[in-house]
Design a protein that fits this description.
12 strands, mainly beta, Jelly Rolls, 6-stranded antiparallel beta sheet
Length: about 170
């Protein structure tokens, strides 16, 4: 349920449980308990992706974010250590409902996605930290999934030992 504009009370109006539930309980719940979906992977096996210049999933089984919104803006966050033994450009994007890339708002993402970073060849961990704001969504249920592409063919590894991967969607 979304926010309901509080009524203007007049002297003698009855104070009922249904009024209190709608104008007090439900509105406070809406303001302070917005919908969110958080995936926080700790101390699990690294996720290795055979990346190419084509866009591919990181791990749809673990990193699929489903959120039901009231029609507000949605913040998407992705944070993980990432490495590859091959130098090149890592491109990152989210796809909404399996059809629309957020970088372009179409079925075809922009060349660099919503975010890109250069990785070197020393196999050191780099932090990929992306925050995107999605506006203009109607009330409804949406699924967001992270996608990557790489400037060459390479194995891109997320979450080396003892690191954390965070993937989150929340309405605000």
């Amino acid at each position: 349920m979304g926010y309901v504009t509080p009524r203007t009370w007049s002297s003698g109006d009855p104070l009922s449980s249904s009024y209190l539930n709608v104008y007090l309980r439900d509105n406070v719940d809406y303001l302070f308990n917005r919908n969110r979906h958080i995936v926080n992977l700790k101390n699990v096996t690294a996720i290795a992706v055979s990346a190419t210049t084509s866009w591919s999933a990181i791990d749809d089984a673990q990193l699929s974010l489903e959120i039901t919104t009231y029609g507000g803006d949605v913040e998407l966050d992705f944070c993980a250590s990432v490495r590859t033994g091959t130098g090149g450009q890592l491109n990152f994007d989210f796809i909404k409902d399996g059809t629309t890339y957020l970088s372009s708002n179409t079925g075809t993402p922009l060349a660099g996605g919503s975010y890109y970073m250069d990785l070197n060849t020393t196999s050191e961990d780099r932090i990929l930290n992306v925050k995107l704001i999605v506006t203009g969504l109607s009330a409804g249920t949406y699924t967001f999934k992270p996608r990557i592409s790489f400037s060459t063919s390479a194995t891109v590894t997320f979450m080396s030992s003892a690191s954390t991967l965070l993937c989150m969607a929340k309405e605000f």
